[in-house]
Amino acid sequence: MNPSTILLLLPALASTMYFDCSNIRDHKQSFDISALGNPISVMTSEDHSPSPTMTNTTFTIDICRPLRKAKGIPKEEDCPNGSQVCGIQRLINTFENSTAFLAAIPIAGQYTFHGGTALDPEITRLKTSSSASDREKEGFRLALHGPTYPDRGGKKQKAVIEFLCTDRAEEKRALMHRKEDDDGEEDHSARGEVADDGHGGTLKYVDFTNVGEEKVLSLEWRT
Asked: What is the pLDDT of residues 103-126, one digit of tens each?
């Protein structure tokens, strides 16, 4: 095969590296989440009191395809090419009323740097999980993989999204309870955000923490 033929095949090969979000199957059950295939973001904030600073991390995900590059953003402050899940960290100084870029974290995607990293999606239907609490839910858990970050001494990155099937009335009650909790006197030194997905559901940040040799972003998507 000559080099020109290989170059012509590259786009087709790349397109097969991403899973089909319109037909996700596990244990003979199919799920179609293609309607959710647009960028959606949630944010978590860490307060550095008594310092007048906080770290905001915005996690953006496109469940069906790579994220598009943001316009007007310096390359080093944007998600790396191939990202489907990415975190942007900024330092907020409330005293100086300033914002400084800290990092762009590649969490999951099909990356070409460092020899390449596969998205390698793993799908588990909750009804078939070994966990009794999982088996009470309808939906599935999707794990997407990424590269090691930072390059030296870092951990393999991974995103785990739990898709839960809920009715709209139940979700509305849950949103009202979350708003009531936010009005209470609780510790907000590290808090997550719930985002409306535009289809009657919500995406919720759960945590971003070390799990063994990996750094795992956990999200809950009720739809």
From this structure: 999 999 998 875 678 899 999 989
> Do residues 176 and 116 touch, judged by C-beta distance below 8 A?
no
Q: Looking at residue 77, what DSSP letter applies? A: G
Tens of pLDDT, residues 195-219: 999 988 999 999 999 999 999 999 9
Cβ partners under 8 Å of residue 92, min gap 6: 53, 54, 55, 56, 98, 99
* b/e burial code for range 191-222 (CB count within 10 A of at least 16 → b): ebebbebeeebbbbbbebeeeeebbbbbbbbb
Give the global pTM.
0.81
Burial of 123-144, coded b for 16+ CB within 10 Å and e otherwise, reads: bbbbeeeeeeebeebebbbbbb
